[in-house]
Amino acid sequence: MTFPHRHLLGIEQLSAPDLTRLLDLADTFLEISERPIKKVPTLRGRTVINLFMENSTRTRTSFEIAAKRLSADAVNISGSGSSTSKGETLLDTARNLEAMRPDIVVLRHSASGSPHFIAQRVGCAVVNAGDGAHEHPTQALLDCATIRKHKGRIDGLEVAICGDITHSRVARSNILALSRLGARVRVCGPGTMLPVGIEAMGATVVRRLDDALDGADVVMMLRIQKERQGAPLIPNTREYARTFGLGPRNVGLAKPDAIIMHPGPINRGVELDPAVADGSRSVILDQVTYGVAVRMAVLYLLGGGIEVSTSGGSAGSDAEKRS
Ligand code: CP
Q1: Of 143, 223, 254, 278, whose CA is between 20 and 30 Å from 304?
Q2: Cβ of 110 below 6 Å from ligand 1
Q3: Tell me: the pLDDT tens digits for 53-110?
Q4: Is there an atom of ligand 1 within 6 Å of 139 CB?
């Protein structure tokens, strides 16, 4: 069965069956990372270019590892190390990279819509690795995969997303993905960090953190995205931590078996107390582990990998049989 999308630009373009297919496939790829030899030949001969015009630790590294575990050739380019620092436009950069015949370009950029712009102008597949405050689709996919692993389902869960919602591409992609898969999503943050009209995406706005946490199955805390804000949107960080931070004093308002998530990077002691970030409910590092598996699934489907069985053997063993 072919994947009905040439690019992965956002969750907005994906149906619930598309999302489930990606999550099922990621589950099959998870096992490859636990092997002594973490490599299958599925995308041998394919080339993936990671073009990261904004800083990244998790996303860039996991796309590179994902490509290498599928035996694709992975090339990394950062904004400061590219000729955009000499004045070259993003489009010229993309066209020059396309002339080297990559199969997939993974783009992170501060401008919302830049992967969509590039996807319309190049011949290879384009993956959005985070575009401004718009979308971060693979983050939402890895978050959904982590929730499914820990809660066994997404349908019917109460998910609280708390923090700087206005500037969060993670929040947008997660609201779309989680509500499409049947979760009820509440968003909470200071009034200056709650965008007008966010309810239209499928979220309920809750003003007080205690109310957002009440009865939640999943609590997702977000960093204040200072790099996307103009004037400061809060009086000071200490007051923010007191009012909108998650710590030992309020984490108990969520359900006893609630999981605590954060896309990273964490600002410890601001949105999340270290005791909770490193506590027994935290699944933050599981999110990072799923990041590799989800990105393998995305590269596999866009890179023309042959569909693997998700009902029997692992993705890796099927891929090896085809080598
Ligand atoms: N979650 C996330 O996108 O992290 P990075 O910015 O480190 O890639």
Answers
A1: 143
A2: no
A3: 999 999 999 999 999 999 999 999 999 999 999 999 999 999 999 999 999 999 999 9
A4: yes
Low-confidence ranges of the chain (pLDDT < 50): 307-314, 316-323
pLDDT at 306: 54
Spell out a b/e string for 5-34, using b for 16 or more CB atoms within 10 Å of the CB, else e. eebbbbbebbeeebbbbbbebbbbbbebbe
Rounded Cα distance between 180 and 184, Å, is: 10
* Residue corresponding to tokens 């718009």: 134
Is the CB of residue 264 below 6 angstroms from any atom belonging to ligand 1? yes
Residue nearest ligand 1's atom 1 by CA = 263
Between CA 225 and CA 304 the distance in angstroms is 35
Residue 108 CA: nearest ligand 1 atom is 8
**Which candidate, 192, 286, 196, 290, places its Cα nearest to that of 243?**
192
- Whether pTM exceeds 0.90: yes
Burial of 110 (0-12, 13-18, 19+ CB in 10 A): middle
Ligand 1, atom 4, lies closest to the CA of: 58
User: For the residues of 242-273, what is the DSSP string, one character each?
Assistant: HHH-B-TTTGGGS-TT-EEE--S---BTTTB-
Residue 225 CA to ligand 1 centre (angstroms): 12
